[in-house]
Amino acid sequence: MVCIGRGRDPIVVLLLIHFTPVFFERAIHAAAANLSLDYVLRGVVREVRRLAADPPAGVKLLLRDNDLTDVVALIDGPADTPYAGGVFRVRLALGREFPASPPRAYFLTKIFHPNVSAAGEVCVNTLKRDWRPELGLGHALLAVRCLLIAPNADSALNAEAAALLRDRYDDYFARAKLYTDIHARPDHAHSAHAHKQEYRDVEENVEEGGEAGGESAESGEGAPRPKRERRAAGARDTRRILKRL
C-alpha cells in the first residue's frame, strides 16, 4: 500500500489497480486532493479497474493520466439516432462530495442536442435529482449514452435543439447528424486523444506496465531533463517507496 500525507493524518490507499509506477503516483496524489475520504478513493479505483476490464456497451473508458477523479470515455453514437456512426468524448468530473453528490458530465465533442449546452455541460436527471451514491461511474456513462437515444426537450440546455425536437423533428435530426458527421468522426475522437496526450487508455496502463514518454531531444548542460528521463526517475523513486512499505 501507499501512504499519502494529508496534514498530520496519512491517508492509506490500497493498490487496487496495477498502473505504471509514475501513472499511479500522479493519479493517487491528484485524487487524494480531490476526494475527501480514503474509502471513497478506494471505491473509485476499484470501479475504474472494473470498467477498464468490462466496459458498458458502446463505452470505452479513458482516464486523465494524472488524476483518477477526471474520467473520460469514448461513447459510440447509438444506432437509429442522428448520432449513429459518431464517437463522442465525454468527461465525468468527480467532486469532493462524490459519491454522495453526482459527477458532473460534459461532452468534449461538439454535439447538437437539447440537453447539452454550448459549453458541453450535460443535463440528465440521473446526474441530478435521481442520483444515488450506489449508482457509480458505469451507470453515469450509460445515462449519458441513453440521452443520445431519448433526448428530453423539457429540460433543455440548448433551446434551439429542443424547439426543433418538439416541432420539426426532421430538421432536428438533420442538424444533429450534420454535427455528428463533422465533429464526431471516429478518426477525430481517436486522433485528438492520441495527439494531445491528455488522456491515456486505461487498458494500456493496466496491461503494459511500461514507462510512457515520447522522444526527447538532446539537451545541453543545465537544460531541463527530457520528459522520458524525468518519468524514469519518478518511476525509480516510486519503486523505492513501495519496497519500504
From TrEMBL:
InterPro entries: Ub_conjugating_enzyme, UBC, UBQ-conjugating_AS, UBQ-conjugating_enzyme/RWD. This is E2 ubiquitin-conjugating enzyme. Its EC number is 2.3.2.23. Residues 189-245 are annotated as: Disordered. CDD domains: UBCc_UBE2S (cd23804). It comes from the Eukaryota. SUPFAM superfamilies: UBC-like (SSF54495). Belongs to the ubiquitin-conjugating enzyme family. It is an enzyme of class 2 (transferase). Residues 39-185 form the UBC core domain. Pfam families: UQ_con (PF00179). GO terms for molecular function: ATP binding; ubiquitin conjugating enzyme activity. Keywords: ATP-binding, Nucleotide-binding, Transferase, Ubl conjugation pathway. Residues 189-203, 231-245 have a biased composition (Basic and acidic residues). It comes from Papilio xuthus. SMART domains: UBCc (SM00212). The active site is at residue 123.
